Amino acid sequence: MPSATTSAPTMKKDHEKIWDRCLEVIKDNVSEQSFRTWFAPVKALRLADHVLTIQVPSQFFYEWLEEHYIGLLKKIIRKELGTEGRLEYSIIMENNAHNSHPYTVKVPTSNVRETRNSAVPLPADLSQSPIKNPFIIPGLKKVMIESNLNKNYSFDNYIEGDCNRLARSAGYAVSSKPGGTSFNPLLLFGGVGLGKTHLANAIGIEIKKNHPDKSVLYVPAEKFTQQFIEAVKNNSVNDFSQFYQMVDVLIIDDVQFLAGKEKTQDVFFHIFNHLHQAGRQVVLTSDKAPVEMAGMEQRLLSRFKWGLSADLQTPSLETRIAILDKKMYAEGIDLPKEVVEYLAYSITTNIRELEGAMISLIAQSSLNKKAVTLDLAKQMIDKFVKNTAREVSIDYIQKVVCDYFDPPIELLKSKTRKREVVQARQIAMYFAKKMTKSSLANIGAHCGGKDHATVLHACRTVNNLQETDKQFRGYLDDLEKKLSIH
Ligand code: ADP
Ligand code: MG
To answer: Within 82-236, where are the H helices?
Structure first.
């Protein structure tokens, strides 16, 4: 296997070619959206003395890359340029408002520089993770296991909501008494981007905090499978099983990945039994409920049910806003409230996409040196967020109508018959009928618990007024503009 240190001399390579190769690897390791946002705008400037200089559009880009992609960049630079390799940023800066020519400053990154005694040896090939995960410290009986937990995914920044209450509290209970609750295994399941990986890591982190002596191991099922295949090849299946049987807490992420892989399921079955009998904790995540996991052996499925299966549901509007607020705080960014609300209203079913949209928005604004406004948010949502159901929601319509006419949204949702509220409510019903696929009954339920006949009446009233009252038609036109996302 070619290793990083033996790669060909780097001086002859052209900086653009090198950066292109880096981009190839980056593409495989980050989401399409992140790639477009953070790497597509980056240019390679030069290569000298093992230092590759890349130009980034703003200080913000530089900071973001350093904070979020430094690990990846480090590996790639090392692979391309050898152990001497370094990366330097050149930031395009706006000198002042009158000067449209950007100038660049150099930011050397000490981070990217190789450290001789780095603790964890990096795999030469990114796609292959080392199977010899544990390293045994001579003279110590206890085997040290690198837990592979993502320290950014803690309970502290996991927002609680109705959508995750059971799963979160079960996870919390497991963290204080791993193996000692009836939640063993704890199976967390739910759709993509709803926080399974985050919660699974939070449990691991919390266990390490409460029980520093316990060994915790987080492993995606995909990696587990790769390791197993590798072990079969190397005739070391026994080592493989023994290693896994040694841990106190085993967290397997995306266990649905094992579906249809009989041999891997088989070895996992034995590991599971061993751990369970020994009173060790097993935490699993899956994007499907156990009953829907086709291709999974019955005996495994029945074991999954021994403990607790807790699902993660789509978060409510309030939870989505709270998650965005928390994320902004963590990243040290600040967006206008209306923008945050707009994002939370528009993206409802996937927290990863929601966060991704927010970050893209900031990147966009930094790239074009424009302030983040509601308009920019609307444009960006169109461009960047694909495949997201973006039918305007009744909630959003109510909010826009209330902002426009002033009655508090609680009143609009209440049964009150005050005239100014009644009219706003009718207009909200009219737009809900026009712009969503909701049934009349559902619209009524959202608007003060009215029945379908009331909604129908509201739509007729609004239509009539629109034909006869010019000012009223003006209101509707305004609102329609505000409501249409395009
Ligand atoms: P899954 O594994 O279910 O696909 P992740 O755990 O990767 O989802 O979550 C996607 C993103 O959403 C992550 O950035 C995660 O931090 C964030 N996230 C999910 N749920 C929450 C929550 N309750 N509070 C804060 N952030 C969350
Ligand atoms: Mg996940």
So the answer is: 165-176, 196-210, 221-233
